Amino acid sequence: MRNFDEWMEKFKDSIADYGYYINFEKVHRNIDLIKVELNILNTLIGSKDIGNEFKELVARYPETLKCIPLLLAVRENEIYAIDGDGEFLFSFKKANYSIEQYMMFMQKTGLFDLLENRLVSNLVDYATGVETGLDSNGRKNRGGKVMESLVESYLIKAGFVKGVTYFKEMKTSDIEKKWDNDLSALTNGGKTVKQFDFVVKTDSVIYGIETNFYTSSGSKLNETARSYKNIALEAKEINGFVFVWFTDGNGWKSARNNLAETFDVMEHIYCIADLDDGVMSRIFV
Question: Is 26 domain-assigned?
Fold first, then answer.
């Protein structure tokens, strides 16, 4: 019998790899899509008559409008704004207001001030910085991907072959079709579909695998623990199918009670330390 407290003491603060922090390839790719338009807007930097110059520029190059949301660190093509002058939903894909109203937008958001007072010297560089900041918001999702990649590396070390003995992102419906197994206990009689991060197939058992890593706390952790507890209990009713969960991260400290409940009913719940200890060769038999 494993001790939950001792097991959880092995959890890690982080598993960040070198690509975790910023995806610079994505940043530069996004900037390249609007680099020409940004350079056109650069002509407004230091303008002494920015309103009229903006008006003339947009009339001649309407495609420059698509750059503006990024200058405000907004991904969408539409921006909502309301004040005493009215309520607006500006489109930057195709103008839906007069140029005077877009001039008002530029003035009230501070973008005219940014340009005419030379608070930036180059909009390509500025936009690259904004895009980098926006990309940092994706670290939480990348943490999950890093854990997924880590687990996959251990599967490969254990001798499993992608597409032959292990499969990525496989749905319950696909498992049922491929190996003629009844997984209705997991899918509410076929009314829902569950997708596993990995599926490992041995001679006698199908293993459905979930992976995640949590650096910070949140309500999602409690929901995840309860959900996986239910899956583990439901999986026990299915012959030839086993549910396996690899998780880690000190974000679990805030949800340790829920995780402990799942730990008590799950035979196959493991952390990174277990992977390092060779658990792969002991699970899949």
Answer: no
Judgement on whether residues 144 and 191 belong to the same structural domain of the protein: yes
56 phi/psi in degrees, rounded to 5: -65, -40
- H or E element that contains 244: strand 241-248
Q: Where are the beta strands (DSSP E) in 127-194?
A: 166-171
Task: Name the residue with tokens 């110059």.
Answer: 53
CB 148 within 8 A of CB 169: no
The pair of three-digit structure tokens given for residue 109, joined into one six-digit string: 């958001």
Amino acid letter, residue 40: I
> Is there a domain that residue 22 lies in?
no
Query: Does residue 74 share a domain with residue 157?
Result: no
What confidence tens digit (pLDDT) does each residue in 49-67 have?
999 999 999 999 999 999 9
Q: Do residue 132 and residue 151 come from a single domain?
A: no
Q: Please tell me whether residues 160 and 203 are part of one structural domain.
A: yes
Query: pLDDT by residue (tens digit) across 106-147?
Result: 999 999 999 999 999 999 999 999 999 998 877 766 666 889
Q: Specify whether the backbone of 156 is left (phi greater than 0), alpha (psi in -120 to 50) or beta.
A: alpha
How much is the pTM?
A: 0.71
